[in-house]
Amino acid sequence: MQSNNSTINRNGYILGIESTAHTFSIGLADSTGYPLDSVSVAVRPLKGGIHPREAADHHAEKAAGVLQELLETNNLGPTNFEAVSYSQGPGLGPCLRIGASVARTISQKWGISLIGVNHCVAHIEVGRKTCGCDDPVLLYVSGGNTQIIAKMDGKYRVLGETLDIGIGNMLDKFAREQGIPFPGGPKIESLAKEWVENNPDAKLGDFALPYAVQGMDLAFSGVLNAACNLIKKGAPLGAVCWSIQEHTFSACVEVAERALAHTSKKELLLGGGVACNSRLRDMCDIMASERSAKSFVPERKFCVDNGSMIAVLGKLHLDCNDTTELSKSSVLQYLRTDQTPILWS
Ligand code: AMP
Ligand code: MG
């Protein structure tokens, strides 16, 4: 696994381990904290949602192979690394514990620093690093999380969030009800696109769903129920996929716009797996340009959960000498975005 190539940069790589939910990923950041390659595997349940224990078993089984592949394809070995970081929370306890155990082992065996990081903050920092934005409002839309976040008084504050399920979770559950396997989001996107292309005069009112905004917060379980009922009443699947996207994405973009107005910030950053969706990306662009702000969207590989973003945030902590003692490295299943002090600029 270790390379003896003396021409490679021996200094400063960071290894990042992601294992909050369905994805197990190990990635790299270079000595400037820029994200590089990552190797990822994900559980794809044939039936039902993610079972935390089964996902954890999957991660434990795959961890060694993922690490080996990453090191071999990048011609790197233990001596190239300065630190190993891992998602300390929030996430599914059993899954988090696998990532933490792998990170502790690597830290001890390789003699490098250990850094537990906040998964949600990693989505922001990989976006800032790769898109070049400075002080954005983040619209974080993933499987388990939906939050509108902005930095204030040294913390990333949650200005609004889902009161029930994450938007990605809602898309996946709706898809599952229709026999579409996990992850449902990409298929819903393609079905919706096809429907509007074939039905350019379709009216949203014919496939109305609850509007998910409640003040600065959002809610998606009512949309899920109503969408399943529309299907039961005979509405075409493509039409319902289109309606789900239009209703829920508009709701997210509305709250994001209000956050921009409240904070007077001029940058909007998208993050999380649902940020792969082109319709959502377009809506954010339109909203931002209408209020003379700028919308930033990371490459899709940095929107979904990935190890490189954990390495990016690990590097920021490392540069502030903020490493994690072994005795304080337990996972934090319910860690909140605003519990992590932002020590860097
Ligand atoms: P994450 O939890 O950040 O890894 O993101 C996974 C979630 O992103 C799942 O719920 C997917 O269904 C969703 N997702 C991935 N690609 C898309 C897409 N193109 N449109 C909508 N949702 C997506
Ligand atoms: Mg995520």
Verbal overview:
The protein has 345 residues and is of the alpha/beta class. Helices cover 43% and strands 19% of the residues. It is built from ten helices and twelve strands. The chain has helices spanning 52-73, 93-110, 119-131, 167-177, 185-198, 221-232, 237-263, 278-290, 300-303, 307-319, and strands at 13-18, 23-29, 35-42, 81-89, 113-118, 137-141, 146-152, 155-161, 213-214, 217-218, 267-271, 294-296. The longest helix is centred in the last third of the chain and has 27 residues, at 237-263. Residues 1-9 have low confidence and may be disordered. Residues 23, 142-144, 168, 171-172, 183-186, 189, 272-274, 276-277, 304-305 line the site of adenosine monophosphate.
CATH class of the largest domain: Alpha Beta
Helix content: 40-55%
Question: Which sequence of strands runs across the widest sheet?
Answer: 3-2-1-4-5
Count of alpha/pi helices? 10
Biggest sheet record: 5 strands, mixed
CATH fold descriptor of the largest domain:
Nucleotidyltransferase, domain 5
Number of domains: 2
Classified in CATH, the superfamily of the largest domain is ATPase, nucleotide binding domain
In terms of DSSP E residues, the strand content is: 15-25%
Total strand segments? 12
**Backbone shape:** globular
Structural class: alpha/beta
Unreliable spans: 1-9
CATH architecture of the largest domain: 2-Layer Sandwich
Separation of termini?
Answer: 36 Å
Mean pLDDT: 94
Distinct ligands, ions and cofactors found in the model: adenosine monophosphate, magnesium ion
Q: How are helices and strands ordered from N to C?
A: EEEHEHEHEEEHHEEHHEHEHH
Using only C-alpha atoms, the radius of gyration works out to 20 Å
